[in-house]
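Supplementary material to the annual report.
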Amino acid sequence: MREITNALLDWYDIHARAMPWRVMPADRKAGKRPDPYAVWLSEVMLQQTTVAAVRAYHEKFTTLWPNVAALASADDADVMAAWAGLGYYARARNLLKSARAVVHEHGGMFPITYDALIKLPGIGPYTAAAISAIAFDEPSTVLDGNVERVMARLYDDHTPLPAAKTVFMDYARRHTSNDRPGDYAQAVMDLGATICTPKTPVCGICPIQSQCDSFCAGTQLDLPKKTPKKPKPTRTGIAYIARREDGAWLLETRPEKGLLGGMLGWPTTEWADDPVDAAPHSTNWTELNDHARHTFTHFHLILRVQTAWLPADASPNRGHFIAAETFDATSLPTVMKKAYTLAAATLRHV
DNA sequence: TACTCGTGGAC
DNA sequence: TGTCCAAGAGT
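Predicted assembly:
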């Protein structure tokens, strides 16, 4: 038990990867503590998202809103626009709710314990454990995809996920460090991200190879077992991209709940097997030859694109116009940006 | 428990 | 190209 913990901490002392929100082990030993705001932001952004994708967004957010008070007083639309492209937009909505709760219900100070953190929106079991361990050195046990994989292999446990989560949590608890909880949490996740990887684990340089049951059995590539997932259906939709004579674009803020909730986008039909026309204006729409293709977590989308120019006095039945000078395609979710790219050439303002 | 909820990179 | 996958949470 302790042997593995210490081996991982020794490995982490040398191989910890530098990240903007991370306090490196030497600095932590010297008494430096991470900024809880930066840690919280990073952990929410890292949910189902790679470090490479998060870096630029973390930098943007800490520049625009350097602390939780600044974020709490930000405009919702600005935060959603800044999150555009990162995905899982409920995270951004919950981020704002949590920031405001921290400011208005916790006096601007982040809760320290797992039990208090998990009450905040967007903070679940993993993130509560990660923040309490990394930011506050509470001895919480993190169990993310990395740790699940490391534990499945360490104990050569072929129980399929997600049912195996509770068992893997029991394994993980055995090794959690009481002396250096923050470093340990990051060490075991770094190991999973860089050495104990899903497809090509580098067992030859693994600091706990001698303790690893699946290395002994040669079953690394079979683990962790997962229950097979259902195939993705293909749905179709139509996006309506219109400009007024003065160049303004017709956009729509999507409802809070559901796909791309709270994000700016083009008015569209429902995305279904056979979409029903839902044009925002009774003008003559022109359909492009090309379609935007996009894959979400649980379905493929073929998005047809129709364009139109609208008169100066147009009053569409939904959406709102955004002036050409104000419109910024980078504040759109990716699927909407794809549609825009297709339509832009035929809607050039002269 | 099972489904919803994005995106981009690796292979 | 299609599939898998990445520091999951909410319902």
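The mean pLDDT of chain A is 96.
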